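Student: Please help interpret what follows.
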Amino acid sequence: MNKTGALYFFELKKILHRRMVWIACAVTLVLCAGISLSNLLRVSYITDDGEEISGYEMMKMNREYARDLSGRAIDNILLSEMQEAEGSADKYVAVYSYVQKTTGDSKEALTADEAALYSARRNNLTRIWREQMLTEEEITYWLGKEKEIETPFIFAYADGWADVFDNIYALNFMLLLLIAVCLSNVFSMEHIRRTDQLILCTRCGRKNLYYAKILAGITFGMIFAVLLFSVSAITSILIYGSDGFHAALQVVLPLSSRPVSVGKAVMTLFVLFIIVSILYSIVTMFLSEWLKNSAAVMGVLAGGMVFTMLVDIPYWLKIPSQLYDLLPTTLLIKGQLWDGRLLSVLGKQLTNYQSAAIAYTVMSVLLAAAGGKLYQKYQVNAR
């Protein structure tokens, strides 16, 4: 095994050896599993028969009803059945909910036919595009994508994957906090304990040591990104089921114009989540070397997280708003799946996810290189 490889495993072991790391990871994974359960345990419902049941029992009942309707076109026949189901409204609650989300009007959901339903969707898409201040080129792009989406939509029960979309925002912040806690002292601890000069006395060299630390931190971030996403997704699937993976995304998010399946959208978020974990890891370690204080690193990252939770830049500030929404703490939310703003690069139109993946990769490389310069410069000056 070469020097860098040996150092890499040594640094990874150092990260995983800390008790705080295991405690933080265990708590975070428990919270991930609990997100999907919380909504089912804290509420109760009244059925059409007047019986009070728990949220979990209601979910199971609605799940069976929705599965019975899966595979049917959302057309005049299904809409008429839903609207005429006076004594058995629970059987069509999933269709009613879908029509309500599409039209944005609970009253219209009880009267809309097929033409009115898809007309309301088009009108809402136009309204969203106007609110997002899309250019003519952007609107043309999405109109082209709309032509790839087949209508009428085929109804499918996909609550398990819909729950993944709902949870990604919380998972993103959990990942950031976990990485901040576990990697904030990768470099700062050497300076605090005054062991940096001793480490440089080894024959491995500062360059090998730096990249071993960076690779170990990235590995840690990626591993726990996979764990967080997997635990959350598996919990959702165990509760709601894995149905609807191959259904059109519009069955879950009717106002999205992305011509992809539910499963492809989930996998896109998963890949982006991994890329974000790399960026978070490198940013944390860069700050660790720059600030040389783990508490300061966690303060900066937590402050940035709170800032993005509290601040929103309106669409009319087009460029600042678009750049702000490309931040990893604002990008990983369900609403970004129907954000129509594009970035033109060399004549090619990139969606927000495509732009972010490229930008995060470039930022990660630049920050890793900048951190290396800081690391070596500090050691030279310390002699």
